[in-house]
Write a structure and sequence with these properties.
The chain has helices at residues 26-39, 53-65, 79-88, 105-111, 116-131, 149-161, 178-191, 211-220, 242-251, 266-277, 298-306, 334-343, 350-366, 372-381; strands spanning 4-5, 7-10, 43-47, 70-76, 95-102, 136-142, 166-171, 199-204, 225-228, 257-258, 294-295, 325-326. By secondary structure, it is an alpha/beta fold. Bound molecules: 3-methyl-2-oxobutanoic acid (KIV) and zinc ion.
Length: 391
């Protein structure tokens, strides 16, 4: 069975930048856009051009800079927004306008004070108008997660007729269960005329911690684009994390889905985004967190030292780290201490370890983490003769 590509649509600079306090200037955005292009994402959503002169400028400058990825600008379903996006994207090698409107009954009633029929018309008009500027038009059905499937299918079919090339089915509020979101994509695949000529895109928010699971479920049911951000940043609880979906597909090759992302750049890209946006990810963040490849309990350390496979399902080198780390704490065992000491040039015999290990435990009970300098000191304090090999 051949492997299908899942396009990675990065929205770090648009949905990600909606995080309070994360506003970047154009120069910072250009650095991130250049890195995303190098990373191998297929689409960079560079901003929302009508929203401010700064955003317009960023989208225009990113359009001039990016060589490989499609550059995309967000709009609401109105002519002014679409014109601004078209203007900002005019220098892009591969421009895409991303336009759309809320389709759930809640959005139709409370946001637009409108009706399904009128929303359908606006959607068609927006796509047709965007099409007069660019060939590549993505339509988003905001709050698709809570939109009635029959109406969603109708609107999808109509915007395909108007020229949409990509259909974005956002779980805007992060409410769907993975099974439900996957079933929604399957329903569209089975009930929308022309669906096989366009790409279905997943755009999932993380309000209940299910963004990644929902996106994968969408891909398993026929979606071939996933919208995501580095470190999962974004509105409220954030978006699907790019590094998670990319590594899930890589580590499950039997799904026959992969991406164009160079995974070895994931860690450094995550660091770049953390530093530029001033948001540090939690240590236990999947794939890019400080502890994602760190082992601290004795049982785990013993296993990893014997064979990495015992407690690691990813190779740290695949995400751009040089190695896993064995963190020494009061829960570490003799194997871990001997391993770390050996890296520092101390080849401890069993008898020597009998002396050093209790000292280490006393030390570790006082200090949360025992670092290399501490190991030197502990061994020296033990007053035993150990030949130190230069490393
Ligand atoms: O979450 C959402 O629905 C969005 C759309 C604007 C695509 O971000
Ligand atoms: Zn969103």
């Amino acid at each position: 069975m051949s492997t299908d590509k899942v396009q990675i649509f990065d929205t770090t600079l648009r949905d990600g930048e909606q995080v309070p306090g994360c506003k970047l200037n154009t120069k910072q955005k250009l650095v991130i856009a250049e890195r995303l292009d190098l990373l191998g994402v297929d689409v960079i959503e560079a901003g929302f051009p009508i929203s401010s002169p700064g955003d317009f400028e960023s989208v225009a400058e990113i359009s001039k800079l990016v060589k490989n990825a499609t550059v995309c600008g967000l709009t609401r379903a109105n002519q002014k927004d679409i014109e601004a996006a078209a203007q900002a994207l005019q220098y892009a090698v591969k421009p895409r306008i991303h336009t759309g409107i809320g389709t759930s009954d809640s959005h139709i009633r409370y946001k637009f004070n409108s009706t399904r029929e009128k929303i359908l018309e606006r959607a068609k008009e927006a796509v047709s108008y965007a099409k007069t500027f660019v060939n590549d038009v993505e339509f988003f059905a905001e709050d698709a997660g809570r939109t009635d499937n029959e109406f969603l299918a109708k609107i999808c079919e109509e915007v395909i007729k108007s020229g949409a090339t990509v259909l974005n089915i956002p779980d805007t509020t992060g409410y769907c269960l993975p099974e439900e979101y996957g079933a929604k994509i399957k329903y569209l695949k089975e009930n929308v005329k022309g669906i096989d000529d366009v790409i279905i895109s997943c755009h999932c928010h993380n309000d209940l911690g299910m963004a990644t699971a929902n996106s994968i479920s969408g891909a398993l049911n026929g979606a071939r684009q996933i919208e995501c951000t580095i470190n999962g940043i974004g509105e409220r609880a954030g978006n699907t994390a790019l590094e998670e979906v990319v590594m899930i597909l890589k580590q499950h090759p039997y799904l026959n889905l992969d991406t164009n992302v160079n995974t070895r750049l994931l860690h450094s890209t995550s660091q770049l985004v953390q530093e530029s946006m001033g948001i540090t990810v939690q240590p236990n963040k999947a794939v890019v967190g400080e502890n994602a490849f760190a082992h601290s309990s004795g049982i785990h350390q013993d296993g990893v030292i014997k064979n990495r496979d015992t407690y690691e399902i990813m190779n740290p080198e695949d995400v751009g780290l040089t190695e896993s780390s064995i963190v020494l704490t009061a829960r570490s065992g003799r194997a871990a201490l001997a391993f770390r000491a050996k890296n520092l040039g101390y080849h401890l015999t069993k008898d020597q370890l009998d002396v050093v290990y209790p000292e280490f435990l006393n030390f570790a009970d006082i200090k949360k983490e025992v670092i290399d300098d501490d190991i030197h000191q502990i061994i020296e304090n033990c007053n035993i003769f150990i030949t130190k090999v230069e490393v």
